[in-house]
Amino acid sequence: MADARDIETLVRAVTERVLARTSVAPAQPAVEPGATEARRRRLVMLLAAPSGHLKELAARVEQLIRAGWPVQTLTCEAAQAEIEQTGLRTRFGAEMQSLAEAGVSQVLAKLGAGDLLVLGTLGFAFVRRLRELDDDDPFVRLCSQALLGGVRVAAIKDDLSPVGIGAQGPLGQRAEDSLGDLAGLGIDLLPGAELPGWLEGLAAVDVTLSKAVGSLLTESDVEQIAASGERRLVLPAHCIVTPLAWSRAADLGLALLFADDD
User: CB-hemisphere CA count at 13 Å for 5?
Assistant: First the structure.
């Protein structure tokens, strides 16, 4: 392993020297016109159940939209009715609509591997359907297909938190088990208060990686990319991938593709 790391260091040094002599600037991943590097991801907020935390969630969505995040909010009928009754519609953004109106296939067609699905509301019945992969539920179908496609899915766990339902007794244990089921599906769990910080952390990783993968991809780059939740990375055609980077990517389940192969 020491020899392999020596080779990795040598490859990096030689590449940097060659690039310096030829004045080749590292290529940057494409960014939508007018967007910053830290805003390449699109966030789809899913309200799959009614919730007692809609007001707090609406405030966070509004905060994200103001900060420049592209947010689309998709609701179930019960959540949409609750939003209308409480006057929160405008706070969820102009792209709010029911999932029935948007259509699961149309939403999936627009999702990229770097985009994010966030389950903003939860309920025991919905988690059970998701655990059982009930294809009749459009939210379950959207989440399962997104996970299979490499899209990162997170869930705000406030609806099933001990504060909301009581920490003791069978109901608390049921909530804990339900959250465990979501984690077992590969869904990130976080309190609603941590959502803005979590997203900013992903944005910071995006900026770092956009600079890292221009001309040379190393083992440490691969580890950082995989840690961010990515499962697929398209590299510029001229990018050099070190042997350790190839090996580590295979270990971590990160698919490396060149632009010509995509």
Answer: 3
d(C-alpha 210, C-alpha 231), whole Å? 16
Q: Which one has a higher pLDDT value, 35 or 170? A: 170
Q: Is 197 exposed, middle or buried (0-12, 13-18, 19+ CB in 10 A)?
A: exposed
Domain locations in the chain as residue ranges: 2-29+213-261, 37-192
Contacts of 82 (CB under 8 A, 6+ apart): 50, 51, 54
Q: What is the identity of the amino acid at 128?
A: R
Is residue 188 within 8 Å of 152, Cβ to Cβ? yes
Q: Torsions phi, psi of 7, nearest 5?
A: -65, -40
Number of Cβ within a 10 Å radius of residue 251: 12
Biggest CA-to-CA distance, the chain: 68
Cβ contact 203:181 at 8 Å: no
Chain Cα centroid distance, residue 149: 12
Given this model, what pLDDT does residue 198 score?
Answer: 87
Tokens of 50: 């009614």
Q: Does 31 have pLDDT greater than 90? A: no
The dihedrals phi and psi of 170, each to the nearest 5 degrees, come to: -65, -30
Burial 37-65 (b: 16+ CB within 10 A, else e): bbbbbbbbbbbbbbbebbeebbebbbebb
- Whole-angstrom CA distances from 52 to 84, 144, 175 are 14, 25, 16
Homologous superfamily of domain range 37-192: Flavin prenyltransferase-like (3.40.50.1950)
